[in-house]
Amino acid sequence: MKVVDRTVLEKVIQPRSLNSHKGDYGRLLLIGGTYPFGGAIIMAALAAVHSGAGLVTVATDRENIAALHAHLPEAMAFDIQDEKLLKEQIQKAEVLLIGPGLAENSLEKEVLQLIVDLVSEHQILIMDGGAISLYSKGTLPFPKAQTIFTPHQKEWERLSGLKIADQTVEKSQEAVNSLPAGTIVVQKKHGTTIFQSGNGNHFQLSIGGPYQATGGMGDTLAGMIAGFAGQFKMTPLLERVTAAVYLHSAIAEELSKENYVVLPTEISKEIPKWMKKLAKKENML
After folding, report:
1. 276 annotated as ligand-binding
2. What is the pLDDT of residue 284?
3. What confidence tens digit (pLDDT) does each residue in 214-230 have?
4. 92 assigned binding-site residue
5. Which pLDDT score is estimated for 280?
6. What's residue 285's pLDDT?
7. Is 191 annotated as a binding residue?
8. Which domains does the chain have, with CATH numbers?
C-alpha cells in the first residue's frame, strides 16, 4: 500500500501553456440531479469547473437548469429527457460523469443504458452514486470506456458483493481485479483507498476526517475527478484521479481548522487558489 502525499499534486498539476484554449482542458458531460436530488449535480458541476475543466455540459431535469445557472453560468445545460441531444453530447464528451443525484427509476436506467451502449475506449466514464446502484443490479454490460467507480462503503458492497465488515484492502483489491484491466475504484471511507484493476499498488489517504461527513461531499469529489481526468493528459489516469482525491481532502482538512463542518461548496471555491500555488510549486500543504 502506498500512502498518498503532496508529491502527486506536484506531479499532476502543471502550469498552462500560453497557446492553449478551453478545448485543451476537457470536454465534460455530467449527468444527474433528477428530482429530488437537484443540488448534487450542481455541486459536481461547481467542482468540475473550479478544477479547471474547459467545457462542462450538464444533463439534468429541465426544472433544475435555472438553479444550476444561478450558481454556475459557466456550465451549459439541457433537459435529460432530450434523447437526441443526449446522444450527441455523449459522443462529443471526452469525460462523462453519471450519478450525482441520479434517481433510480426507469428514465435514469435508460440513460445509463444509453451511455454504456455509446461510449468508446477513447472516453473516460465515471460512475458515482445512483449510477453505481443501477449498474450493480447486473443487467448492463461493462462499458468500453476507461471506467472509474467512486462508491462509498454501501455502494461498494452492492458492486463488489463484499459486506462492509469484509471490505479489507486485500479483499477489495481482489474484487477490483475481477473488473476489466485498468478499471479504477475510489473506495470512499475514512482512509479513502484508490485501486486499479491489474495494479497491485493501491493508494490510501492519511488525511481527511468527520468534518467531511455532510451531503454533497461525494458529488464534489466526483466533479473534481472529472475535472482532473479531462486535463493533465500527460500523466496517467490513475495519477490524475489520485491527485483529485488527495486535493479534495487536503482542502477540507485546512478548512476544518476554523470550521466544525466543511461544506462541499466551500471546497470548490478553494480549488483554483490551491491549484495556482501548486502549479507554481509553492509550499502550501
Report:
1. no
2. 42
3. 999 999 999 999 999 99
4. no
5. 77
6. 43
7. yes
8. 1-11+18-277 (3.40.1190.20)
In angstroms, the CA 52 to CA 22 distance is 9
C-alpha cell at 121: 475506449
Nearest to 223, CA basis, from 133, 91, 128, 159: 128
145 is in an annotated binding site: no
188 is in an annotated binding site: yes
Is 101 annotated in some ligand binding site?
yes
Contact at 8 Å (CB) between 121 and 111? no
- The pLDDT value given to residue 1: 77
Q: Which positions of the chain have pLDDT values less than 50?
A: 282-285
Give pLDDT, residue 166.
95
Residue 227 among known ligand-binding residues = no
Per-residue three-class SS string for the chain: CEECCCHHHHHHCCCCCCCCCHHHHCEEEEECCCCCCHHHHHHHHHHHHHCCCCEEEEEECHHHHHHHHHHCCCCEEEECCCHHHHHHHHHHCCEEEECCCCCCCHHHHHHHHHHHHHCCCCCEEEEEHHHHHHHCCCCCCCCCCEEEEECEHHHHHHHHCCCHHHCCHHHHHHHHHCCCCCCEEEEECCCCEEEECCEEEEEECCCCCHHHCCCCHHHHHHHHHHHHHCCCCCCCHHHHHHHHHHHHHHHHHHHCCCCCCCCHHHHHHHHHHHHHHHHCCCCCC
Q: Which residue has the cell 476554523?
A: 258
Residue 40 labeled ligand binder: yes
Given this model, what pLDDT does residue 138 score?
84
Residue 215, annotated as binding a ligand? no
pTM of structure: 0.96
Best CA proximity match to 125, nearest among 31, 3, 18, 51: 31
208 is in an annotated binding site: no
**Tally of CB atoms within 10 A around 169:** 14
